[in-house]
């Protein structure tokens, strides 16, 4: 089994193609490459992991670089999970946030089902809690596309 040191951690945005490929491998909704490239370019911070030329991990941060940050696209390729790669990427993400966040800044993320424990290690708390309501979200579905099919489901 490869050790985490075998992997190259690159602090830069991955290609839209590489991220789209990883999202597909973990069963996430497809986003067209042009939209993905536009979003990636607006990231505040990103890290990806390479083995030879293959990208096998990503994590990135968007936000205002001071008072609010949102962590997105934390993915490790199936088969490479459980080796500490996700943890190393999250440490880099949290280092970036630590260098830029003001006291009282909000740091958000949306945990995939069953992954809450992974994020708790980095200080994230589940909602709802005693003082906070549910986190909320919606998938943006333009009306013209909402007439059926996968994208019309908001779950
Ligand atoms: C979640 C994910 C990014 C974790 O990355 P990873 O490289 O597999 O995780 P690591 O090997 O760094 O594991 C880190 C630690 O978290 C633990 N962990 C991993 N998944 C966990 C879970 N669901 N609940 C609790 N702990 C978890 C591991 O046991 C390990 O603990 P240890 O350090 O005490 O041994 C990865 O499994 C993944 O990409 N999953 C599919 C996509 C996904 O769900 N992403 C999260 C989106 S919000």
Question: Which short descriptors sum up this protein?
Answer:
155 residues, alpha+beta, Aminopeptidase, 5-stranded mixed sheet, 26% helix, 21% strand, binds coenzyme A
Low confidence ranges? none
Main beta sheet, described? 5 strands, mixed
Termini, distance in Å?
Answer: 36 Å
The pLDDT mean sits at 92
Note the total helix count. Answer: 4
* CATH architecture grouping: 3-Layer(aba) Sandwich
Q: Topology as H/E string?
A: EHHEEEHEH
> How much helical structure, as a percent, in the residues?
25-40%
Number of structurally distinct domains:
1
Q: Which geometry do the CA atoms define?
A: globular
CATH class: Alpha Beta
Physical arrangement of strands within the biggest beta sheet: 1-2-3-4-5
Beta-strand content: 15-25%
Number of extended strands: 5
Task: Briefly note the CATH topology name.
Answer: Aminopeptidase
Molecules bound to protein: coenzyme A
Q: Tell me the CATH superfamily.
A: Gcn5-related N-acetyltransferase (GNAT)
Structural class: alpha+beta
Walkthrough of the structure:
The protein contains four helices and five strands. The chain has 155 residues and is an alpha+beta fold. The protein has one domain (4-152): Gcn5-related N-acetyltransferase (GNAT) (Aminopeptidase). It has a five-stranded mixed sheet, sandwiched between helices. Strand 4 (68-76), helix 3 (85-100) and strand 5 (106-109) form a beta-alpha-beta unit. Helix 1 packs across helix 2 (33-41). The protein starts with 7 loop residues before the first strand and ends in a 35-residue tail after the last helix. The model has no long low-confidence stretch (mean pLDDT 92).
């Amino acid at each position: 089994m490869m050790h985490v040191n075998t992997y190259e951690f690159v602090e830069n945005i991955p290609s839209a193609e590489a991220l789209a490929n990883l999202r597909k491998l973990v069963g996430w909704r497809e986003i067209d490459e042009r939209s993905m490239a536009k979003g990636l370019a607006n990231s505040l911070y990103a890290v990806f992991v390479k083995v030879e030329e293959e990208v096998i991990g990503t994590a990135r941060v968007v936000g205002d670089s001071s008072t609010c940050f949102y962590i997105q696209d934390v993915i490790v390729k199936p088969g490479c999970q459980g080796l500490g790669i996700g943890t190393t990427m999250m440490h880099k993400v949290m280092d970036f946030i630590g260098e830029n966040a003001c006291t009282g800044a909000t740091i958000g993320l949306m945990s995939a089902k069953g992954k809450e424990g992974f994020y708790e290690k980095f200080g994230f708390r589940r909602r709802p809690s005693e003082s906070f309501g549910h986190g909320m979200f919606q998938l943006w579905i333009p009306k013209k596309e909402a007439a059926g099919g996968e994208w019309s489901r908001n779950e």
